[in-house]
Structure formats: structure tokens, C-alpha cells
Amino acid sequence: MTDERRTAIALIAGSAGMIITMIFHPGGKIAPEQLEQVIRLNIAVHSLALASIPVLLLGAWGLSRRLDGGDRLAWAGLVLFALASIAVMNAGTLNGLVAPKLMRQIVAATPETRGTWQMLLNYNFQINQAFARLYSVGASLAILLWSVAIFRYRAIGRGVGIYGVVLGSVTAVAICSGLLTPDRHGFAILIFAEAIWFLLAARDMWGLEPSRDAQQTL
């Protein structure tokens, strides 16, 4: 199997994991009798996301390798995406592994201590949102850089580049300006939009012939 196809598989698998995470991500008001069920689902979907992010990053590495034209534009995109991946893994850890314990503490707390635990849960959420913003901007700029590299070197289809330039520019500006917030709904929109880009890139990578460097290695 060629490196291009391995890259495509990683991009597809990582994107699928993130899509599934957002589809089943719990939200809204929770009745006390639903708490444990929601907590188990919350841990499961965030664990899937934490497992999917390194796979997606591996696909991004293969994509950057193929898009590299000597000016390090694609590698700059990879560095941004790697830093963004660290941020979103922190966000997923806070929301998927820390928040459930705080929720249990709130339910078990006395009236005197419940306010403290609720404050800690809110603080945890604010940190989660900060990391989610870092990911949103970093990943958007990474896609923008990769898309510019597509235009410069035409390694894969121009359609992917056009969509990436629009997506990366619009989402970065929307997050920085506050028009798009990384709450459950806003983050889901971002993840689905990015997943489409990665899947389109994976489609084009699947059909590519091995690069010259890979052929020389073989």
C-alpha cells in the first residue's frame, strides 16, 4: 500500500471519529436520574475523540509531506495543526474526564458545598472553551496554509484548495471576532466543516501515484 493511501485512511478514520463524537456528544439539561447514563456517554465519546486526534494528525503529516514544495508552507500548517491538536486534547480531557467527576460531586454535595463544586465546574468549562478556541483558530489556519500549498504545487485537486481557503479564512475570523463560539453547536459546525475538507483531501490522496521520493526508497 502506498504512503498516499495510508495517509488517506488516517484522514478518513480520524475524521470519522470526530464526526461520531459530535453526533453523540451529550448536551442540554440533565435530570438527576439521567446523570450516570450521560456521564458514561460523555466519557465514551470524548475517549473516542482523544483516540481519533493522533490518527488525524498522522494523516495530516502524510498530507503535509505530499504538499511540501520546499518553502515549508505545508510543514508550517502541520506545526499549527499539531499545536491545535494538543489544545483540543486538553479540551476533550477537561470536558470528558474532569467534568464528569465534578458533576458527581455536585450531586453528592451538601447545600453548603454545592456552590463551590458548581463554581469549579464552571471554571472547568471556561478552560475547556479557551482550549477549544485555540484549536479552532489553529486548525483553521493550518487548513488555510495547506490549501495555499495546494494552489502553489497542485499536488491534489483545486476544489479542495478553494474550499480550504474559504473555510480556513472564514472560521478563523468568525472565532476571533466572536461570531462563532466553540460551544457544543458551534464546535460541531466547525468539526463537520473541517471533516469535509479532510475527507476531500483523503479522496484525492487515495488516487495519487507514489511520490518520487517514495519510489526511490522502494
What is shown here, in short?
The protein is mostly helical. The chain is built from seven helices and no strands. The protein is elongated, with a radius of gyration of 19 Å.
Please give the domain count: 1
Number of helices: 7
The secondary-structure element order is HHHHHHH
Number of E strands: 0
Task: Give the proportion of residues in helices.
Answer: over 70%
Structural class: mainly alpha
**Shape, per Cα inertia axes:** elongated
The fraction of residues assigned to DSSP E strands is under 5%
Uncertain runs: 214-218
> What is the terminal-to-terminal distance?
12 Å
What composes the largest sheet? none
What is the mean predicted local confidence, pLDDT? 91
Alpha-carbon Rg, integer: 19 Å
